[in-house]
Each structure stands twice: as structure tokens, then as C-alpha cells.
């Protein structure tokens, strides 16, 4: 099992989760964060830290596509170990539906 970052993170990227991760499994994409499913130890400390509830445990609902996306993207993006500044328009994007298609230009 692993935790995954879902589309609620897209263009919000508050990064509160990064500071609590004991194994540095977060990777930073331009528009969002992903959790490397190979590095995640399933401790769950990141989930309650996310103010937009973007982090969920794999095995809930239909998250397999997010695990695949994270696996693919983690190998391409740098590890992030410290909380940075969220985008200036993060609050405007919080809770907006359909962000993946808008930002990545394709369905997940």
C-alpha cells in the first residue's frame, strides 16, 4: 500500500505534507506533488496535513490510475524535502473540479 496525491493538489501545492514525511518520498512537478509509491512506507502522517484533502490511501475507491501516474512522474521529478511557497493563485484553484485535464491537457 501507498498514499497517493490526487487532483486536489493540482495548482494548489500547499506542501504541508512534505515537512512531515519521514522518508522524503514527495516529488515536485510544476503543477502538483506526487508520492513515489516505491519509497512511501504507508505511515500516513502526510494525509491529515493536506489542507485540500488531496492525499489518500491507495486501496480507497479508484486510485490505481493515480498510483500509476505517481510511479511514472516520480522518476522524472526531483525529490522535495522542505515545504516551499504555494502558487500565488492556489486558493483560487482549491476545490476546482476537472483540474487534471485542464492542466495536463489529457485525461488521467
Automatic annotation (TrEMBL):
Pfam families the UniProt entry points to: DUF3470, Fer4, Fer4_4
Highest classification ranks of the organism: Bacteria, Pseudomonadati, Pseudomonadota, Gammaproteobacteria, Lysobacterales
The organism's place on the tree of life at top rank: Bacteria
Family annotation (InterPro entries): 4Fe4S_Fe-S-bd, 4Fe4S_Fe_S_CS, 7Fe_ferredoxin, Fd_C, FdxA, RnfB_subfamily
PROSITE patterns listed in its UniProt record: 4FE4S_FER_1, 4FE4S_FER_2
Gene Ontology MF annotations: 3 iron, 4 sulfur cluster binding; 4 iron, 4 sulfur cluster binding; electron transfer activity; metal ion binding
Cofactor(s) the protein needs: [3Fe-4S] cluster; [4Fe-4S] cluster
PANTHER family noted in UniProt: FERREDOXIN, OXIDOREDUCTASE
Keywords: 3Fe-4S, 4Fe-4S, Electron transport, Iron, Iron-sulfur, Metal-binding, Repeat, Transport
Protein name: Ferredoxin
Summary of the function given for this chain in its UniProt record: Ferredoxins are iron-sulfur proteins that transfer electrons in a wide variety of metabolic reactions.
Record organism: Marilutibacter penaei
Boundaries of every 4Fe-4S ferredoxin-type domain copy: 1-27, 31-60
Amino acid at each position: 500500500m501507498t498514499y497517493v496525491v490526487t487532483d486536489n493538489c493540482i495548482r494548489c501545492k500547499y506542501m504541508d505534507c512534505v515537512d512531515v514525511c519521514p522518508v522524503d518520498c514527495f516529488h515536485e512537478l510544476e503543477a502538483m506533488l506526487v508520492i513515489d509509491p516505491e519509497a512511501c512506507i504507508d505511515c500516513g502522517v502526510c494525509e491529515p496535513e493536506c489542507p485540500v484533502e488531496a492525499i489518500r490511501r491507495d486501496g480507497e475507491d479508484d486510485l490505481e490510475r493515480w498510483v500509476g501516474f505517481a510511479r511514472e512522474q516520480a522518476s522524472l521529478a526531483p525529490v522535495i524535502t522542505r515545504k516551499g511557497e504555494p502558487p500565488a493563485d492556489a486558493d483560487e484553484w482549491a476545490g476546482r473540479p476537472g483540474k487534471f485535464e485542464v492542466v495536463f491537457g489529457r485525461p488521467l
